[in-house]
Write a structure and sequence with these properties.
The chain has 16 helices and 10 strands. It has helices at about 1-30, 50-55, 55-60, 95, 100-105, 115-120, 155-165, 190-195, 215-220, 255-265, 270-285, 310-315, 325, 330-345, 350-355, 375-380, and strands at about 70-75, 125-135, 135-140, 145-150, 170-180, 225, 235-240, 245, 295-300, 360-365. A hairpin with a 2-residue loop joins strand 2 and strand 3.
Length: about 400
Amino acid sequence: MRRGTDGTGLRRSAAGLVALILAVAAMVTGSGPAQAAPAGRASAATVDLSRWMGDMHGYLDDQPLNRIAMPGSHDSGSWSIPADPALCTSGWSYNVAKLDTRLAASISRSQSDSLTDQLDEGARYLDLRLCFEGGQWRTFHGAPMGGLFFDDASGEAASLKRWIDDHPSEVVVISVSAAAPTGTDAAEPVTRLRDLFGSRAALRTELSPASTYGDFVKAKKNVVLVDSSAAVDQPWAWHPDNVSDRGSYPAGDPSWWEILKAFFSGSPPQQIYDQTLSLNQAALARDPGTDAGRFFVLSSIVQPDLQIPQLFLIRLLSPFFPATVRDNYLMYLANGLNPQLVTKLRTDWRAPELARNMNIVSIDDLGHRPQGDLQRAVIDINTLPGRSTAVPPA
């Protein structure tokens, strides 16, 4: 018996020594058993962008929706504007666009993928602009028009419904604005969308921008319809003042003198990028004040108006410029800005005083980023330690 007891003790001592050696080795090398990420806390670097909210719900459940950092797309429906488009006669830039429709299209197309592709690429805010022309609603930007929107089962509206139904954990904010001739029912687009989405459309009488992501999911409401044209007074039509850009939207409509001055001074795109980044930084640093209860759309987009003469010359010398520049000038500018946005999101804008204000980040050409790095840089803000769940006082 004694010999057996001694043998057991010896084996235990040896096992303990091996365990100690392994523990020390793990401390030295930093290795050891892989630790699974907590449930609902997927990494922003590897998460499936088509369902990132659901996969990261552990970070989001108790966060007000207007404090969740989420990618959005600017002029979302402009992806379908052709090179030589028909024009929306009710569009704000119609009188200028009709002088050169191809030039107008080049500075109006700000996305390259369909609405559902943008959602699959991580967008949770869509800036949807619709024009009533020829008896039908089409997507448009400024004046150039894209495809039919309400086109039975094959239209983009029907595709949006299917995506919303198939992704109950993804809460999407859709800002709908309408341009139409006098006498047209400007309420029709948002009303038809609500009819499509049915019970999934959130009611502003029950939820608000400051309601948590978890509140929306529990209520099975995963689409917010913002009636930007203020044409509908119904609980499912959220008011335009539920959204603020806090001064981040670049100033538009420069005078011809400003345009010519920029042309003769050789205004490079970097000046446009610097303006955008400066406006963004100031908006993030600004105390929300009365905007604390609203959605905050950080307009991380370019304002190309000052570049119109440069584009005109490019079109005159078209054989010497690739189509990516000549026919997609706005996206060409965006693709110069977007890498700089990634850098800001990963460095300066991760500072607590800026990151705590991050909400919707509106982006041009959302989809054409390597592995979705821009979207992931936005989403990763949600994982920062100490992200406050409290809404600042108004």
